[in-house]
Specification:
The protein is α/β, with parallel strands linked by helices. The protein has 29 helices and 19 strands. Bound molecules: 3-hydroxybutanoyl-coenzyme A and 1,4-dihydronicotinamide adenine dinucleotide (NAI). The site of 1,4-dihydronicotinamide adenine dinucleotide (NAI) has 24 residues, from helix 13, helix 14 and helix 16.
Length: about 700
């Protein structure tokens, strides 16, 4: 097997190791063994220089992640890397595509590095809960200095080939074109110039810019890397590299790497990596389904969502037309879009010229006839069935027969919206999240009659516009908002039972949520839920768990936008502050509803909120609303600030153990009498069979 994935060939006096392990030339056992065998061959032949290159679309994209969690097999990557660095003849690595993780570490161990334009070089291990474990933490600072090395390893963001040249990370930026040819020419030149072996590990790390550099750096990233183990280790290892030789450095690095690799958070992040890729694959459509071309798009409604959705398409170079009921509404919507782009220019994300080009791709109209020829329409008008059905009737009458009609509804029945048209098979839900131009998540809702090619088209289109799409079925709130409901309800009950908003939020944030549930409510605006409850015919303050929110809205405390909600907000800093008025109000409402108040521990807060998510997630899976537990996780991770390093609610349930989850649910059921704690039948079934949620994977 190793012969197939790694080939060795002597071309003149250049020995060429060619790795060919699709799709991304990951460093599987066969590759490592193959490289070792090739090194042995090259050691004794007539080669004067060894060139390491890869076939296919990329240089090595890293260690083989599927091997983590299995018994390690020799040779390990550090041994291969050491053999490269200590090779008695000069070694040149030729990079193209992505040189990531273990792939870049191979290149760092080579004596010379070259790359074609467009190559990206990085150490993204941190995204998998890891640190570079094959010398990266020790060699990168030796080449580019401590500051850049830390920046690359802590952010995990790759640098371009051009930047790599500036940094001294590569020695030569090759001509654009065939990497093999250009690299061979460079190799011949190195031989002609008498290039010598040049081990990176023998270099000394340049001193950090200031004496307290590492402490300052540590403090600077603390907030952003909250909860993660690897970033702290990376800083420790770079600091260590300044004072110790490569051998000692690699020894410590290996220890820390193994600790990270065996940690629950790395297991969680690896799950996220594969779940993200799995959710893009539709399992329940015919294999020969083909996506339809989408070259032009229209968005109906230029409000909060419509404007953001239009930006997504415009950013991807797909012409988009915004449709509104009046010129005034269009002007207002376009004004917001323009000011968003102004901010991007201010922050250096886009140049003015880029923004001008993007904006030229956004047209606007009040006349539906102008969008008769588009390939796709996304409706983002008010969340009201009658209004939406009216819009869909109009679209059906106006748009060409094969035009796809999508709705951005948050809760409404997509089947009923589709039924307003004569082409329900062309109707699909496209639930973007706010702000739509920023949030990565997209729930693609498959209605009863949605055609497979329409679903597939949307899933692929999502990738084009930089979204992570998850296919979901029709139900109230789809996956994310449906799960949110039980979670938010528990937060309200906890307040009435004795917790304060700041305690609930702090407990959830300490557990890892990006933002606690009440702070999220204030950010989104309490009026949204208020309106939705009224639309559903629920009278104000008639329900225990929404009495507080209803009262706050009626006091004009709508959240951040009105300066107060569950908290009071500093007008300058927007920082939240506990508000005694809210404390008193909660106590009043609790008394009205005869709720006994008590001291509540943080553990109970975390348990109740996370168990609510888990139980609803299991029901969603049982109903087939989501196809895989990983799909539920991806929704919650990308739309609701669930900590990535906990893998998502379903992965978290498996980590706790389904027996434990059920035990906790049953205890709550007994204690509170609340039927919401009845364990989902799927959990009982899986636990009974000694299985996990992950075992449901397709
Ligand atoms: N190991 C195993 N499989 C991998 C892999 C890896 N390192 N990287 C990608 N794959 C698989 C993916 O799972 C996917 O499989 P599928 O087709 O069955 O779903 C396939 O390769 C293609 O991947 P993508 O869909 O992600 O393809 P893209 O072209 O969009 O992206 C990429 C390519 C930029 C290389 C991206 O896959 C990526 O970021 N990969 C991970 C890179 C990484 O994290 N490397 C570090 C690994 S840890 C390490 O090296 C430890 C070391 O320090 C000891
Ligand atoms: P919004 O009130 O900000 O915008 C709606 C816009 O639609 C208004 O500008 C209105 O003038 C326009 N409009 C109404 N009827 C129209 C018609 N017949 N033709 C053309 N334009 C029309 O509302 P928002 O927040 O953008 O919500 C839109 C949809 O997106 C709703 O279905 C909502 O549930 C959903 N959604 C909202 C999210 C949010 O956080 N705001 C998140 C995800 C989905």
């Amino acid at each position: 097997m190793s012969e197939a994935v790694v080939q060795y060939q002597l071309v003149g006096d250049i020995g060429i190791i060619r790795i060919d392990n699709p799709p991304v030339n990951a460093l599987s056992h066969a590759v490592r063994a193959g490289v070792m065998a090739a090194l042995d061959q090259a050691r004794t032949d007539n080669s004067k220089l060894l060139l390491i290159a890869c076939a296919g679309r990329t240089f090595i994209a890293g260690a083989d992640i599927t091997e983590f969690g299995q018994t390690p097999r020799e040779p390990g990557l550090p041994a291969v890397i050491a053999a490269i660095e200590n090779f008695p003849k000069p070694v040149l690595a030729a990079l193209h595509g992505t040189a990531l993780g273990g792939g870049l570490e191979v290149a760092l161990a080579a004596h010379y590095r070259c790359a074609v334009p467009g190559t990206r070089l990085g150490l993204p291990e941190v995204n998998l809960g890891l640190l570079p474990g094959a010398g990266g933490t020790q060699r990168l600072p030796r080449l580019v200095g401590v500051e850049t090395a830390l920046e690359m390893m802590i952010s995990g963001t790759p640098v371009t080939a051009g930047r790599a040249l500036e940094l001294g990370l590569i020695d030569r930026l090759l001509e654009d074109g065939d990497v093999a040819e250009a690299a061979e020419a460079y190799a011949r030149q190195l031989v002609a110039d008498g290039a010598a072996v040049r081990p990176t590990g023998a270099r000394v790390v340049a001193a950090p810019p200031t004496a307290d550099f590492f402490d300052t750096y540590r403090a600077g990233i603390a907030r952003k890397t909250r909860g993660l183990i690897a970033p702290g280790f990376i800083i420790e290892l770079v600091e260590f590299a300044c004072l110790h030789d490569i051998e000692q450095g690699q020894k410590l690095e290996r220890e820390r790497f193994v600790e990270c690799r065996n940690s629950p958070q790395s297991a969680a992040l690896r799950h996220v990596f594969f779940a993200e890729r799995a959710c893009a694959k539709l399992t329940n459509i015919p294999a020969d389904t083909r996506a339809l071309p989408v070259k032009t798009v229209a968005v109906i409604g230029a409000g909060t969502m419509g404007g953001g959705i239009a930006m997504c398409f415009a950013n991807a170079g797909i012409p988009v037309t915004l449709v509104e009921t009046s010129q005034e509404n269009l002007d207002r919507g376009l004004g917001v879009v323009r000011s968003n782009y102004e901010t991007s220019v201010g922050r250096g994300r886009y140049t003015r010229q880029q923004v001008d080009t993007i904006l030229a791709g956004i047209r606007s109209t009040t006349d539906y006839a102008d969008i008769a020829g588009v390939d796709l329409v996304i409706e983002a008008v008010f969340e009201n069935m009658a209004v939406k059905q009216e819009v869909f009737r109009k679209l059906d009458a106006t748009c060409k027969a094969d035009c796809i009609l999508a709705t951005n509804t948050s809760y409404l029945d997509v089947n009923a919206i589709a039924a307003a048209t004569g082409r329900p098979e062309r109707v699909v839900g496209a639930h973007f999240f706010s702000p739509a131009n920023v949030m990565k998540l997209l729930e693609v809702v498959r209605a009863e009659k949605t055609a497979p090619e329409v679903l597939l088209t949307f899933m692929q289109l999502a990738k084009t516009i930089g979204k992570i799409a998850v296919a979901v079925g029709v139900c109230h709130g789809f996956v994310g908002n449906r799960m949110l409901k039980g979670y938010a309800r528990q937060a309200q009950l906890l307040l009435l039972e004795g917790a304060s908003p700041e305690q609930v939020d702090a407990a959830m944030e300490a557990w890892g949520m990006a933002m606690g549930p009440l702070a999220v409510g204030d950010l989104a605006g309490l009026d949204i839920g208020y309106r939705s409850r009224r639309d559903q015919g629920i009278e104000s303050r008639s329900v225990k768990e929404s009495a507080l929110a209803d009262t706050l809205v009626e006091m004009e405390r709508l959240g951040q936008k009105s300066g107060a909600g569950y908290y009071r907000y500093d007008p300058e800093t927007r920082r939240r502050q506990p508000d005694p008025e809210v404390t008193a109000l909660i106590a009043d409402i609790a008394a009205q509803w005869h709720v006994d108040r008590r001291a509540i521990g943080d553990e109970e807060i975390v348990d109740r909120l996370t168990l609510a998510l888990i139980n609803e997630g299991a029901a969603i899976l049982a109903e087939g609303i989501a196809a895989r537990p990983g799909d539920v996780d991806i929704v919650y991770l990308n739309g609701y600030g669930f900590p990535k390093w906990r893998g998502g609610p379903m992965f978290h349930a498996d980590s706790l153990g389904l027996e434990t989850v059920i035990g906790k649910l049953q205890a709550l059921r007994e204690l509170t009498g609340d039927p919401c704690w009845e364990p989902a039948p799927l959990l009982l079934q899986l636990a009974g069979e000694g299985r996990t949620l992950a075992s449901l994977k397709l």
